[in-house]
Amino acid sequence: MVKRNQDxxxxxxxxxxxxxxxxKKEFLEKNPDAKIISLGxxxxxxxxxxxxxxxxxxxxAGLGTKKGYSGYGNEQGLTELREKIAFKIYNGxxxxxxxxxxxxxxxDIGRLQLLFGNDAVIAVQDPAYPVYxxxxxxxxxxxxxxxxxxxxGSIVYLPCTPENNFFPDLSKIRKVDVIFFCSPNNPTGAxxxxxxxxxxxxxxxxxxxxxxxxxxxxxxxxxxNIPKSIYEIDGxxxxxxxxxxxxxxxxxxxxxxxxxxxxxELKFDNGIQVRQDWDRVLxxxxxxxxxxxxxxxxxxxxxxxxxxxxxxxSYYMENAKIIKAxxxxxxxxxxxxxxxxxxxxxxxxxxxxxxxxxxxxxxNIITTPGIGFGQSGEYFLRFSAxxxxxxxxxxxQRLKVHLK
Length: 404
Ligand code: PL4
Fold this sequence. Notes:
single chain; four-stranded antiparallel β-sheet; 2 domains; Aspartate Aminotransferase, domain 1; Aspartate Aminotransferase, domain 2; alpha/beta; 12 helices
């Protein structure tokens, strides 16, 4: 028999989202007539808008013709799409060659781990999207306290709670190699200000760290003073990689398309460009994003597509607004929801899995328990705004009855 990868054995529990689905399934087996409303997993529900959908259909139909057929493409993505992302999303502040089109932010977060050695110390916000920690553990990082070395392994938690305005005191953080930072944040819905992001970049420059900036929800930012990209911050190109996605902005969660920016200025301590290694990782382990998805993304970034993107975002943000207002009316502390599609609510003295089960049993509403995102998430629930508006309205009526 083959020995199990011991890094897999170190993972603390099952992945959060399948566990939520497992509990939902178990509940439905016992209550087959229940009409469940999901405010749980951040999964898009609104159909792809017409202009973007047409581009996808045309690309798919074209594959059945000699003229429209294409096989493998460049691993880095269509040149035209890289260029369009550079200009439409980054106003030309990053170049086409620094953009790598992918099959989504999550797969890129996993692959990025290959850039760093096993001894790299990782910092994550607490609470955080679980992929940062779980992928770090899979790649050999340790979470547990080590009595022999008196260290807490190679993962450093940065509590981000209402008490510190969801931003860590970086002056108290020891030197780390890689910092995962997500704004707009999943799960708290908090956004980092320009000043806070400048502090983060300054920390990384001083400590020679690399920031992996997850901007998957950047299109949800409504406040024009909040940066949508880390590259709006002075010095960021020397220290930051940015991952982004079309999943939430145009509903490509199932279509699959994202990108990662690795600036030319970003180097390892031996002077080698990080970009060079990233290119090597992709050309070896990835065969390029779907040609159909890339045609859809090209349409999403032209004028009509960008307008449709705005409509999609507004639709979910309207949901976010009413969920947050309802929770606050009911006397709950609720955060986020203004520049992000998530609302982070403190369930007073009820622990998060208990609050999750209570809402499922009594109101038939699925949420995400805060503890699933880290210790600082205990006593919180995350409410996702990615539902049909009629379901959100129904959910709100149920919350008013059951969440007192
Ligand atoms: C459920 C901060 C959702 N099975 O779709 P991608 O791969 O381009 O982006 C995934 C992603 C990346 N970064 C952040 C995210 O929040 C997400 C998606 N997160 C959620 O409910 O937290 C979907 C989760 C999915 C998963 O595991 O990602």
